[in-house]
């Protein structure tokens, strides 16, 4: 689904590269968590895929196609919900389809279906400030789905939520993911979240980023939170936390 | 209404003190009393409301419309292009260092006593706050929202139409609310310096006649008019930007 081929990137010509000769692959339909200490360049990888910045060299491919050629190649869900305060929930959901010039009738239908899906049909004509943090993130996720992209980039989407809402949202997102068969690349710095959610964890472990360490999560789906107390998972979690702490102190 | 109560009480207290002071001085050409001003306003209602208020409002209206148009256009081109911004911004700031009252006689030389000299004074004073406020509005829209739209494949035009324009609307309303009193003041100054009608002109004429209350009457009328128009714009803002409530 997603391939980085020898991608090098630096913020300016004088500065040392942040990413150097990086290659990695994400298989279609996978749920991959990207973890690393803050400031390690996780978000830079997303910016590259979103074409907000250009690599100095190398290629980024989505379904084998260079992203330079497509318009809005991936669905991006930012850390903050970034709902437009002047748009109602319904019209916020419509935004990606307006940009993609989806015909009005189809747009209406898909928006109404999505409102049902995210459980906010009653809030269609409310404004974002009327909604709670968890509801707003659901709208933000719905909007990301409506970009129609097969690859979803989720950038710490739940980090601003309270612990309880966060757990609910994690389970909700997994349910949605299993329904839509999308490929998800999920940035988080929460190891537990990464283990609970993903098939594979890609660990950002060096500077500049030359490779990502791939760690398979040994668990089937559907998952329950009991998973997090299984001895081998507890073991995995503590070893990952140790790794990250060492990275952070470097 | 309750939240304005203290300011209403304070205003009445000031007016009562003023009335008492005016009675003490007892020289209406130096300090006319509030009651005296109201009486004068009523006596002069024919020329004030039929001739001079419409004249001032015409200048204000034309000046305000041109200022808003010009301010919007400048804000848009400055937001779209950094080179244009660097070129225009200092000039726009510099234009505000020109003392209006000093340059206005030049306008009278150019346009005579036609309304255009007064309109020009109005524009010179009004376009600046409109330009700067709306430009700030465009600049204030979130960079992250812009990135989000780019990730959806939006071009510059789309970002402007769907993000910058609606995002700057509250700023636009602030700019208009600020511009209304300024443009009325601009028109009145223009009339002071050279005109044959208008509330500013009328006030000046009353001064030459040492009619204190007559000087104040058109001023009261001007500020009440400004308050009413700003009130109307505020109501329009509340109706057009429902999402701004409770924020």
Topology record:
The complex is a heterodimer of chains A (250) and B (247).
Chain A: E1 2-9, E2 19-26, E3 31-35, H1 42-49, E4 57-62, E5 65-66, E6 75-77, H2 89-99, H3 104-117, H4 133-145, E7 151-155, H5 163-180, E8 183-188, H6 191-197, E9 200-204, E10 212-216, H7 231-249
Parallel strand pairs in A: 3-8, 3-9, 6-7, 7-8
Antiparallel strand pairs in A: 1-2, 1-4, 4-5, 9-10
Chain B: H1 5-25, H2 34-43, H3 45-80, H4 82-95, H5 100-111, H6 115-140, H7 143-151, H8 156-193, H9 199-208, H10 212-240
Short structural description:
By secondary structure, chain A is an alpha/beta fold. Chain A has 7 helices and 10 strands.
Please tell me about this protein's structure:
- The complex is a heterodimer of chains A (250) and B (247).
- Chain A has 250 residues and is of the alpha/beta class.
- Chain A folds into two domains: 1-74 and 151-160 and 182-250, Rossmann fold, CATH 3.40.50.300; 77-148, no CATH class.
- Chain A has seven helices and ten strands.
- Chain A has a six-stranded mixed sheet, sandwiched between helices. In chain A, strands 2-1-4-5 form a four-stranded antiparallel sheet, with no helix packed on it.
- The radius of gyration of chain A is 18 Å and the shape is globular.
- The two termini of chain A are 33 Å apart.
- Chain B has 247 residues and is an all-alpha fold.
- Chain B has one domain: MetI-like (MetI-like fold), CATH 1.10.3720.10.
- Helix content of chain B is 83%, strand content 0%.
- The mean pLDDT of chain B is 90.
- The chains are: A alpha/beta (250), B mainly alpha (247).
- At the A-B interface, helix 2 of A face helix 7 and helix 8 of B.
């Amino acid at each position: 689904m997603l391939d980085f081929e020898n991608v090098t990137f630096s913020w300016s010509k004088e500065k040392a590269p942040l990413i150097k000769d990086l290659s990695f692959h994400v298989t279609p339909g996978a749920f991959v968590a990207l973890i690393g200490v803050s400031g390690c360049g996780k978000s830079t990888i997303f910016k590259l895929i979103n074409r907000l910045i250009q690599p100095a060299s190398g290629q980024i491919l989505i379904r084998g196609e260079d992203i330079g050629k497509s318009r809005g190649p991936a669905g991006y869900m930012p850390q903050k919900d970034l709902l437009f305060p002047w748009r109602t929930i319904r019209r916020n959901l419509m935004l990606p389809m307006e940009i993609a010039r989806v015909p009005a009738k189809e747009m209406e239908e898909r928006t109404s279906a999505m409102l049902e899906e995210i459980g906010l049909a009653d809030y269609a004509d409310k404004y974002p400030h009327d909604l709670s943090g968890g509801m707003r993130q659901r709208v933000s996720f719905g909007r990301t789905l409506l970009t129609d992209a097969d690859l979803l980039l989720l950038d710490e989407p739940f980090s601003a939520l309270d612990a309880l809402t966060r757990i609910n949202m994690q389970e909700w997102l997994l349910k949605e993911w299993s329904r839509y068969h999308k490929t998800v690349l999920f940035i988080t710095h929460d190891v537990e979240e990464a283990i609970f959610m993903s098939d594979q964890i890609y660990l950002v472990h060096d500077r500049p980023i030359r490779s990502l360490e791939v760690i398979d999560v040994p668990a089937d789906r559907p998952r329950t939170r009991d998973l997090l107390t299984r001895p081998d998972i507890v073991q995995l979690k503590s070893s990952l936390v140790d790794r990250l702490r060492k990275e952070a102190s470097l | 209404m309750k939240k304005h109560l203290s300011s209403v009480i304070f205003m009445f207290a000031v007016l009562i003190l003023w009335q008492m002071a005016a009675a003490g001085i007892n020289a209406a050409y130096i300090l006319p009393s509030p009651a005296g001003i109201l009486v004068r306003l009523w006596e002069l209602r024919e020329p004030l409301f039929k001739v001079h208020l419409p004249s001032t409002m015409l200048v204000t209206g034309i000046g305000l419309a041109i200022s808003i148009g010009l301010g919007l256009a400048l804000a848009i081109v400055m937001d779209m292009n950094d080179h244009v911004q660097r070129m225009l911004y200092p000039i726009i700031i510099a234009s505000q260092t020109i003392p209006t009252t000093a340059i206005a006689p030049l306008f009278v030389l150019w346009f005579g006593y036609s309304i255009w000299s007064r309109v020009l004074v109005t524009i010179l004073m009004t376009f600046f706050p409109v330009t700067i406020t709306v430009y700030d509005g465009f600049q204030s829209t979130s960079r992250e929202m812009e990135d989000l739209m780019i990730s959806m494949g939006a071009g510059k035009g789309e970002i402007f139409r769907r993000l910058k324009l609606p995002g700057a609307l509250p700023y636009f309303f602030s700019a208009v609310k600020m511009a209304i009193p300024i443009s009325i003041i601009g028109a009145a100054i223009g009339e002071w310096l050279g005109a044959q009608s208008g509330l500013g002109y009328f006030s000046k004429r009353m001064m030459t006649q040492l009619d204190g209350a007559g000087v104040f009457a058109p001023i009261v009328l001007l500020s009440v008019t400004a308050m009413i128009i700003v009130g109307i714009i505020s109501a329009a803002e509340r109706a057009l930007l429902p999402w701004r409530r409770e924020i």
